[in-house]
C-alpha cells in the first residue's frame, strides 16, 4: 500500500481571531520562495529560546494525547545526544486528514517547525514520517528546496520515510521501529521514544500540526499564539469534519469553540434534523450523543465528559443513523487493524466486534451487554499500543451515552441497523504487516543531503 | 516492587497465575495481566520471582526503579 | 514516625534528589530554591520510583511519563503523557521537612503507610 494517494480534503473555513493561521484557501502547494516571502524561515528565536517561548505559549500536542510539548521537548533535550526529531504525519485515524493537507499544501510551515524543534533540543536529524504519497513527495521537494538555498546556514539532515497507511503505524513506537528499518508496528514501552528512540537515541516524535504551530510561535511569539483559544489549551486547532454534513472538510478553530459553530461552518446536518451523535477523535474517542453540540471543543472539557477529542476528527452522524450500527462498524475496524502482535488485542477486539455485531443483529440478551462492558474493561491499558483502548472507548461510550438505544437493541431487531454505515465510517485499505515481513517490502526511504 | 506482563510475549500459558494468583490474573481469553497495576506487596515478592522464572515466554519483568 | 537528622544541608546539592530508604519508608529529599522538600519515592500515577526525576524550582517531573507535581503541596501540575486514566492521577505524597539551626534535616512521616498497593488506578 505504500505510495497510495489518499483523498485530499477541501477546506470549509475557519473561526479564529486575527493573526497567522495554518489553513490557507489554496489548492496548490506553497513553494519555498512563496513561504519565505510571506515571512517564513526568519525565526527570531533559536536554541533554548524556542523552549522558553513554547513553555509560555502552552502549546499542547495535536496528535491525540494533548500533552504539553515543552515538557516532552525538555525530556529529550536533557538526555545525551545524538538526538532525532520525527515529524509524525501518519494519521492512522481514517477520518483525519489535517496532517496530510498540511504536508501537501504547506510543507514548509511543518518543516520550519521541525527545524525549530531540532534547534531547541539539539537534534541533528529530522525524519518526516508519512503514508500519503503526494504528501511524501511534497516533503521531499521541501527538503530539496531547503538544501538548494544556502542563506539559511547549516540545517539538520532531513529524511522522508514512507510507510503503509494502517491504524497502528502512527503510534510513536511504530514510528521509531519503522525508521530503524523494521515494520511499522508498536513495541512494548518502556523505553519510550523520548528515552530511546530512532537508532537508540532520544527522539522527539511530534505530530505535524503541532510542529506547524511551533513555526508560528517562533515567528510571531507566544503572546500572539495565546491570543486565541482557551487558557489551558491555547491556540487554534485543525478539525477534520466528515460524515453526514453538507460540506465535509478541514476547519481551523480556536480551542473552546462550540461544536455547533463548527457544524454550521460545515453546512449543518445532511438531510436536516438533529444529529444522532458524533464519532470523536476519528474512531478512538468513542461515540458522543447529540448534547455534544453545545460542548466546547477542547481536550480537557471533553475529557471530563468522557469524550476523547483525539486528533480532531469529528464524524457527524445524521438523524437516520443508528449508533449501534456505527459502533459495530468501528468495532470491526479495530479488530481488522489489530497488528496481531498481542494475544489480548487479537482476541479482545474480536470478542468486542462479535458482541457488538450480535447487538446490531438483535441477537443480544442483557447478559451480552454486561459481557461487552467486561470485555472493554479487560482490554483497556493492555497490549503494546492504544488500539485496544480505542475498542474499549467505543463500547463504553455507547453504553454510557446511549443507554436507551442499547436497551432497545436487546433481543430486538433494529431496522435502522440494517442500513450500511460504511459511507461515514471509512475503512483503511491496508492492514498492518505482521512481524517477519522484510523491511524493504514495507517501506521506501529517501535520504537527502 | 512492580511487575508487568509484556502483552506481545504473553501467549496465555497461565503459569504465572498458577504460581502466584494473588498478583496475576487471567482474562477471558487466557492471557495474563498483573492486578493493581503490577504493585507487589513485600509478602508476595518471593512467589512473584518464582512466577517470573516459571514463565516459558519470559514475558514478565520487574519494572526498574 | 519522625526521621531525625537524615541529612545535613552540606550533603544536599541544589536540585539533586537524595533517596532515603529504610524499614517502612522510601522517600526522596531535595533542596531547591533554598527550601528542603521531602516526598514519597512513588509516583501516584503508576507507582514507579521517582528518584531519577528532575526538579526545577518547586516542580518535580517524573522520569517515566513526564507527569509534573508541585513539591510544596504535592498537587498535580501536568497529567502524565499516557497510561490508564491519567486524569485520575492523585497528588504526590509530601512530608514536612525541617532544617534545624545546625543544618540537619528531619522529616516527619506522619501516619502514612508507605508500602502497600495504595490507590494506583
TrEMBL record, chain A:
Keywords of the record: 4Fe-4S, Iron, Iron-sulfur, Metal-binding
Biased composition regions of type Basic and acidic residues, renumbered to the chain: 438-449
InterPro entries, per the entry: Nuo51_FMN-bd (IPR011538), Nuo51_FMN-bd_sf (IPR037225), Nuop51_4Fe4S-bd (IPR019575), Nuop51_4Fe4S-bd_sf (IPR037207)
Protein family membership: Belongs to the complex I 51 kDa subunit family.
Ranges of residues in domain NADH-ubiquinone oxidoreductase 51kDa subunit iron-sulphur binding: 324-369
Superkingdom of source: Bacteria
Xref: Pfam families: Complex1_51K, NADH_4Fe-4S
Disordered: annotated span: 430-449
Protein name: NADH dehydrogenase
GO molecular function term, any single one: 4 iron, 4 sulfur cluster binding
Signal peptide: none
From TrEMBL, chain B:
Residue ranges occupied by any 4Fe-4S ferredoxin-type domain in the UniProt entry: 1-29
Cofactor(s) this protein cannot do without: [3Fe-4S] cluster
Domain of life: Bacteria
Keywords: 3Fe-4S, Electron transport, Iron, Iron-sulfur, Metal-binding, Transport
Pfam families in the cross-refs: Fer4_15
Gene Ontology MF annotations: 3 iron, 4 sulfur cluster binding; electron transfer activity; iron ion binding
InterPro entries listed in its UniProt record: 3Fe4S_ferredoxin (IPR001080), 4Fe4S_Fe-S-bd (IPR017896), Fe-S_cluster_ET (IPR051269)
Chain's role: Ferredoxins are iron-sulfur proteins that transfer electrons in a wide variety of metabolic reactions.
PANTHER family xref list: FERREDOXIN
Name by which UniProt lists this protein: Ferredoxin
Organism expressing this protein natively: Pseudonocardia sulfidoxydans NBRC 16205
From TrEMBL, chain C:
Gene3D superfamilies the record matches: Rieske [2Fe-2S] iron-sulphur domain
Pfam families per UniProt: Rieske
PROSITE patterns named in the record: RIESKE
Protein origin, superkingdom: Bacteria
Domain Rieske: 4-95
Protein's UniProt keywords contain ATP-binding: no
GO MF annotations in UniProt: 2 iron, 2 sulfur cluster binding; metal ion binding; monooxygenase activity; oxidoreductase activity, acting on paired donors, with incorporation or reduction of molecular oxygen
Listed transmembrane segments: none
Keywords, in A-Z order: 2Fe-2S, Iron, Iron-sulfur, Metal-binding
InterPro entries recorded: Rieske_2Fe-2S, Rieske_2Fe-2S_sf
Name under which the protein is recorded: Rieske domain-containing protein
Organism, as annotated: Pseudonocardia sulfidoxydans NBRC 16205
Amino acid at each position: 500500500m505504500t505510495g497510495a494517494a489518499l483523498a485530499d480534503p477541501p477546506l470549509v473555513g475557519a473561526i479564529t481571531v486575527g493573526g497567522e493561521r495554518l489553513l490557507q484557501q489554496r489548492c496548490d502547494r506553497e513553494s519555498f520562495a512563496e513561504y519565505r516571502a510571506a515571512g517564513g524561515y526568519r525565526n527570531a528565536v533559536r536554541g533554548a529560546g524556542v523552549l522558553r517561548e513554547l513553555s509560555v505559549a502552552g502549546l499542547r500536542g495535536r496528535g491525540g494525547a494533548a500533552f504539553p510539548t515543552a515538557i516532552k521537548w525538555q525530556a529529550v533535550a536533557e538526555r545525551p545526544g545524538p538526538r532525532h526529531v520525527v515529524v509524525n504525519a501518519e494519521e492512522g485515524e481514517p477520518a483525519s486528514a489535517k496532517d496530510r493537507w498540511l504536508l501537501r499544501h504547506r510543507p514548509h510551515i511543518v518543516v520550519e517547525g521541525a527545524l525549530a524543534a531540532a534547534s531547541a533540543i539539539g537534534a541533528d536529524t529530522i525524519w518526516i514520517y508519512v503514508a500519503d504519497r503526494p504528501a511524501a513527495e511534497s516533503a521531499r521537494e521541501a527538503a530539496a528546496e531547503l538544501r538548494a538555498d544556502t542563506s539559511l546556514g547549516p540545517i539538520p539532515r532531513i529524511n522522508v520515510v514512507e510507510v503503509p497507511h494502517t491504524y497502528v503505524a502512527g503510534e510513536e513506537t511504530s514510528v521509531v521501529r519503522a525508521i530503524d528499518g523494521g515494520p511499522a508496528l508498536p513495541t512494548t514501552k518502556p523505553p519510550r521514544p523520548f528515552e530511546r528512540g530512532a537508532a537508540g537515541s532520544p527522539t522527539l516524535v511530534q505530530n505535524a500540526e503541532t510542529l506547524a504551530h511551533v513555526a508560528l510561535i517562533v515567528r510571531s511569539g507566544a503572546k500572539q499564539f495565546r491570543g486565541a483559544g482557551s487558557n489551558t489549551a491555547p491556540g487554534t486547532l485543525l478539525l477534520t469534519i466528515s460524515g453526514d454534513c453538507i460540506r465535509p472538510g478541514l476547519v481551523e478553530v480556536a480551542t473552546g469553540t462550540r461544536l455547533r459553530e463548527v457544524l454550521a461552518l460545515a453546512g449543518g446536518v445532511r438531510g436536516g434534523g438533529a444529529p444522532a451523535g458524533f464519532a470523536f477523535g476519528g474512531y478512538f474517542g468513542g461515540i458522543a450523543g447529540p448534547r455534544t453540540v453545545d460542548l466546547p471543543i477542547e481536550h480537557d472539557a471533553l475529557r471530563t465528559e468522557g469524550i476523547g477529542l483525539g486528533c480532531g476528527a469529528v464524524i457527524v452522524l445524521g438523524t437516520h443513523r443508528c449508533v449501534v450500527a456505527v459502533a459495530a462498524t468501528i468495532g470491526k475496524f479495530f479488530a481488522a487493524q489489530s497488528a496481531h502482535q498481542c494475544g489480548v488485542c487479537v482476541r479482545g477486539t474480536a470478542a468486542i466486534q462479535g458482541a457488538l455485531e450480535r447487538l446490531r443483529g438483535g441477537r443480544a440478551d442483557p447478559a451480552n451487554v454486561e459481557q461487552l462492558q467486561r470485555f472493554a474493561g479487560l482490554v483497556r491499558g493492555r497490549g503494546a499500543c492504544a488500539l485496544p483502548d480505542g475498542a474499549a472507548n467505543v463500547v463504553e461510550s455507547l453504553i454510557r451515552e446511549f443507554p436507551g438505544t442499547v436497551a432497545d437493541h436487546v433481543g430486538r431487531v433494529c431496522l435502522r441497523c440494517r442500513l450500511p454505515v460504511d459511507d461515514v465510517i471509512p475503512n483503511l485499505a491496508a492492514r498492518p504487516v505482521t512481524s517477519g515481513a522484510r523491511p524493504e517490502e514495507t517501506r521506501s526511504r529517501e535520504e537527502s543531503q | 516492587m512492580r511487575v508487568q506482563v509484556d502483552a506481545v510475549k504473553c501467549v496465555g500459558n497461565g503459569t504465572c497465575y498458577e504460581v502466584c494468583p494473588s498478583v496475576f490474573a487471567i482474562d477471558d481469553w487466557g492471557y495474563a495481566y498483573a492486578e493493581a497495576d503490577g504493585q507487589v506487596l513485600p509478602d508476595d515478592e518471593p512467589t512473584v520471582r518464582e512466577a517470573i522464572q516459571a514463565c516459558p515466554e519470559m514475558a514478565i519483568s520487574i519494572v526498574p526503579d | 514516625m519522625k526521621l531525625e537528622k537524615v541529612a545535613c544541608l552540606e550533603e544536599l546539592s541544589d536540585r539533586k534528589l537524595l533517596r532515603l530508604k529504610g524499614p517502612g519508608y522510601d522517600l526522596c529529599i531535595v533542596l531547591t530554591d533554598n527550601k528542603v522538600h521531602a516526598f514519597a519515592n512513588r509516583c501516584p500515577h503508576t507507582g514507579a520510583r521517582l528518584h531519577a526525576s528532575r526538579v526545577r524550582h518547586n516542580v518535580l517531573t517524573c522520569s517515566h511519563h513526564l507527569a509534573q507535581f508541585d513539591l510544596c503541596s504535592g498537587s498535580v501540575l501536568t497529567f502524565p503523557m499516557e497510561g490508564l486514566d491519567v486524569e485520575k492521577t492523585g497528588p504526590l505524597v509530601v512530608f514536612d521537612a525541617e532544617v534545624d539551626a545546625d543544618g540537619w534535616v528531619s522529616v516527619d512521616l506522619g501516619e502514612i503507610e508507605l508500602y502497600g498497593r495504595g490507590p494506583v488506578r
